[in-house]
Amino acid sequence: MKFLHIADLHIGKRVNEFSMIEDQKYILNGILKIIDSEKVQTVLMAGDIYDKAVPSAEAVQLFDTFLTRLVKKDIKVFAVSGNHDSAERIAFASQIMKDSGVYMSPVYDGVVKPIKMTDEFGEVNIYLLPFIKPIHVRSCFDDAEEIRTYDDAVKFAVEKMNVDTEARNVIVAHQFVTGAERCDSEEVSVGGLDDIEYHAFDKFDYAALGHIHGAQHIGRAEVRYSGTPLKYSFSEVKHKKSVTIVDIKEKGRVEITTVPLVPLHDMREIKGTYMDVSNRQNYEGTDTEDYMHITLTDEEDVPDAIAKLRAIYPNIMCLDYDNKRTRNYNVIDSADISKNKSPVELFAELYEKQNNSEMSDAQREIVEKIVEEVTEGAV
After folding, report:
1. Helix (H, G, I), strand (E, B) or coil at 329
2. Pairwise CA distance, residues 251 & 114, whole Å
3. What is the pLDDT confidence band of residue 46, given thresholds at 50, 70 and 90?
């Protein structure tokens, strides 16, 4: 049985105030094409379907369109809610959707029954475990008072599933497995409180995980994060986004491959002086409509730089400077101010501490003129 594993769609997300909805439409269309080319039978969605617990109407409409197109292709869908989702909203109308082959995780109530699929090798049991916290598990069981950690909670929840280890089993879950590499666009719990060990999924032939934005496996190849389909922060700029194709054959035989995803706009970082990044020779042949983080190395700020550069790179998300001033920012101490220094000398010291360089002769002449005019006006 061939599965396509995706996660962390974050539909409706905004990155640096840029709406990603058009990029998400584009990448979901690309995923549908991969489903056709790979002859996938089932899609596993491992949480964070939406970016917010209360998604926008536009986000809901996009996900509705995606699900409808999957159903029309006779693709079975198994989805769980993530920490960004509302478990109740994801579970809405789940009983009705089952008739169309769309299985959405219910709100966790302590009962996770397998959904059985059949292929030439027999049955495959699919378990849907939404994002859970220790309190969710404790509230469902009288014998769970000792559960304090996320690891305790997930292991306890799995134990209550009574998994038949002789059968082929797949779990779809949204948790943080210890050892996974995080990035800036993910929510981090202080002190690693949300960590769980990969051994929590030992009873499963494949664990389709969500929560981590970079594609990777933990402990063994079959405990895997598919990663996000798009880059959602500049900490992901080096990620190679993909979907994971899982072909489960007879018990003990799982084949895992990845198919790269091509975005509508990539996310890139460039660095140089204003003249460098605005030089046609340096940007010709590149996709100037990519989402850009530009770092200027000019020692002096370029007036209205971001507006000027947007004439070349319309999707600049972030502009900053890397120069002596930003690398060696000095704090001005009032004790440094001396009554024996002239206003021009004091301003020159302030300028040097802020910019880590001395004023030019032309700048000094401007300051002297301003001080003179102010002094004359005060007389």
Report:
1. coil
2. 17
3. very high
The Cα 138–Cα 145 span in angstroms is 6
Q: Which residue has the tokens 């409509």?
A: 289
Residue 283 parent element (H or E): helix 280-283
CB atoms < 10 A from the CB of 300, how many?
14
Q: Count of residues for the chain?
A: 379
Tokens of 340: 């024996």
Helix 21-38 / helix 57-72 crossing angle, nearest 10 deg: 10
Q: 316 or 356, which is more confident?
A: 316
C-alpha to C-alpha distance for 171 and 44, rounded to whole angstroms: 9
Q: Which long-range contacts (CB under 8 A, 24 or more apart) does 356-363 make?
A: 356/323, 356/324, 356/325, 356/327, 356/328, 356/330, 357/299, 357/324, 357/325
The b-or-e profile of 41-60 (16+ CB within 10 A means b, else e) is bbbbbbbbbbbeeebbeebe
* Residue 211 near residue 82 (C-beta atoms within 8 A): yes
Name residue, tokens 């994002």: 131
Give 199: exposed, middle or buried? Use CB within 10 Å, 0-12, 13-18, 19+.
middle
Q: pTM score, two decimals?
A: 0.81
Q: Give the pLDDT confidence of 190-245 residue by residue, as tens digits.
A: 445 678 999 999 999 999 999 999 999 999 999 999 999 999 999 999 999 999 99
Q: How many C-alpha atoms does 301 have within 13 Å on its Cβ side?
A: 9
Contacts of 135 (CB under 8 A, 6+ apart): none
pLDDT at residue number 229: 97
Beta strands in 175-253 (DSSP E): 176-177, 195-196, 206-210, 216-218, 220-225, 242-248
Dist CA 59 CA 51 (whole Å): 9
Does position 330 have pLDDT exceeding 60, yes or no? no
